[in-house]
Amino acid sequence: MATPLPDFETARGGGAVASSSTTVLPSSVSSSSSSSRPLPVANSFSDDAEEISPILIFLFFHKAVCSELEALHRLALEFATGHHVDLRLLRERYRFLRSIYKHHCNAEDEVIFSALDIRVKNVAQTYSLEHKGESNLFDHLFELLNSATETDESYRRELARSTGALQTSVSQHLAKEQKQVFPLLIEKFKYEEQAYIVWRFLCSIP
């Protein structure tokens, strides 16, 4: 379902924003792109809060996911080199991470890329396909974790390869979003639209 963007002029006047299955663009921007806002340098802050794009809140999620993937891959490497690792706990941590990441990807497809596709064509499909590829990597990893053979050295190596492949794929995907998608969202959408996209994104996650 396409994500509706509100008529912000109406919203400012207290009018209700109608829900719709089609995307509704504010009248003030329907005929042209919004004013460009440069992507702020990482870790830089301005005295003017409006200079910080709402889109950059997603950087915190990206950092958390990459940090957990790195930690879990490190555990898999320890397991592969003969150290004791609780595979049950490892499996539960991956299950939680997959649940969170799946909700994130679904929200991106439904909200972010649906909105972006209105202003910039041929971007959303590429990232949606990458989401499917990452899901396949998670599937393979859980097949390994559910068939644990702790004494099998080849199993230990395969598990480490699988966790490494997942970490690399997701980390590269998120880095590409930061380099390509975030600047487009900031350039093509007004500040209020960006805030609305973030709000819709957060509301779409269970």
Defining key terms:
mainly alpha, 0% strand, 206 residues
Q: Explain this structure to me?
A:
It contains 6 helices and no strands. It is mainly α. Helix 2 runs antiparallel to helix 5 (153-188), helix 3 runs antiparallel to helix 6 and helix 4 packs antiparallel against helix 5 (153-188). The radius of gyration is 20 Å and the shape is elongated.
- Total number of strands: 0
The number of helices is 6
What order do the SSEs take from the amino end to the carboxyl end, as H and E? Answer: HHHHHH
Our estimate of the beta-strand percent is under 5%
Low-confidence stretches: 7-50
The outline comes out as elongated
Q: Give the mean pLDDT.
A: 80
Give Rg in angstroms.
Answer: 20 Å
> What share of residues is helical?
55-70%
Helix/strand structural class:
mainly alpha
Cα distance, first to last residue? 17 Å
Main beta-sheet annotation: none
Describe the structure concisely for a colleague.
By secondary structure, the protein is mostly helical. The chain is 64% helix and 0% strand.
Question: How does the SSE layout of this entry go?
Answer:
Layout: H1 8-12, H2 58-80, H3 87-119, H4 124-145, H5 153-188, H6 191-203
